[in-house]
Amino acid sequence: MGEIGGVVKNDGSPVVLDGYNLIAYDWYNGILGMQSHLVQPDKSMRVTNVTIDYNTKTQYVTLSDGTCIESDVTEHMREPCVPASSKLLTSSYLGFGNNALHINVWEYLKPGTDNIVKLAVTDPGCIPVIEASYGTMKGGKTDIVYFITDFQPGIAQPELLAKPTFPCRRQGANDEDIPDDLVRSIKSVKQIYSH
Q1: pLDDT (tens digit, 9 = 90+) per residue, 93-105?
Q2: Cβ atoms within 10 Å, residue 73
Q3: What residue numbers bound the domain in which 172 lies?
Q4: Looking at the whole model, is its pTM more than 0.85?
Q5: Count of domains in the chain?
Q6: CATH number of the domain that 159 lies in?
Q7: Does 47 have pLDDT greater than 80?
């Protein structure tokens, strides 16, 4: 999933998001794995592994320095496709001719927030392709677009679903030890795959 955009924090400072996430999603077993690749201000790439176990309501974040942070998850794994509250905006195509991809574009309000989500999914199949979201997150205005690319049925990288095999430091609801851009990246994945 490609990610580019930004957030303006309450103090007026911007947080730029530029990178991509490799995602493995196992709806049947209630586990989501993500490897986040985010460009840093010095142009280096920070790689972080995240595993969310929706059954135990636990998230594991393994930072690039090897630090593991375990925290609670309040979200539930979303049913496949789009939330029941979604409104169909349009049906259209990406590409043309024999290479056209038929999509349906849906809109919904993220529950408990002012975030409007527009989600384009394939028809048939309901595979997420593009998501645009705007509203307030952590007190700051946000506007971001996600491109879900390289989708493959099945789990091409099952190692992304593995929980850490070493002890993690337990953290409460606050996530001050997790960099802001990574927090946003995790929330973006949760936005697509959780409710």
Answers
A1: 999 999 999 999 9
A2: 16
A3: 2-193
A4: no
A5: 1
A6: 2.50.20
A7: yes
